[in-house]
Amino acid sequence: MIKGFKEFITKGNVIDLAVAVVIGAAFAAVVNSLVEAVINPLLGAFVPSGDLAKWTIDFPGLFAEVHLGIGAIISALITFLATALVVYVALVLPMNKYKEHQAAKNPAVEEETLPSEQELLIEIRDALRKNAAN
Fold first, then answer.
1. What is the pTM of this model?
2. Chief location of this protein (predicted)?
């Protein structure tokens, strides 16, 4: 069991995944601070509380007034969309362009097409006739 665990840990995939998680967490912190410091204050100018994260919708409950934190949900949604946009623009688009460039540079060798079922049956029939004639 220890040997199998050691092999699992030392594989490149696990190390790459660990690095990706750490970098992803740091990247998320950068995007979160950008959204909290720049985008939310700009949007806060259009909400009654002046701060998007503190914007609530109040309505009466059975025993006390209920405060729905709609601003926190909108803030989290904006953070998610900003993160997805930055990842797409900074990582996905360049990688797709790189792959297209590599594909254009090294065109794939066309694979030989396999014969159809009918062609195989004809070859088998001809081989059987040839063997029967001999």
1. 0.56
2. membrane
CA-CA-CA-CA dihedral for 100, 104, 109, 111, to nearest 10:
40
Instruction: Specify whether the CB–CB gap between 68 and 56 falls below 8 A.
Output: yes
Q: What is the residue range of 22's domain?
A: 2-104
Please list, residue by residue across 27-58, b when 16 or more beta carbons sit within 10 angstroms of its beta carbon and e when fewer do: beeebeeebeeebbeebbeebeeeebbebbee
Give residue for tokens 């209920």: 66
Query: In DSSP terms, which residues pair with 68 in a beta bridge?
Result: 57
Confirm whether 131 is domain-assigned. no
Q: CATH code at 44?
A: 1.10.1200.120
For 57, phi and psi rounded to 5 degrees? -110, 120
Over range 85-101, report the average pLDDT: 87
CB atoms within 10 A of CB 71: 21
Residue 111 is predicted with a pLDDT of 59
Residue 45 phi/psi, 5° resolution?
A: -65, -20
d(CA 32, CA 38): 10
Residue 45 lies in a domain: yes
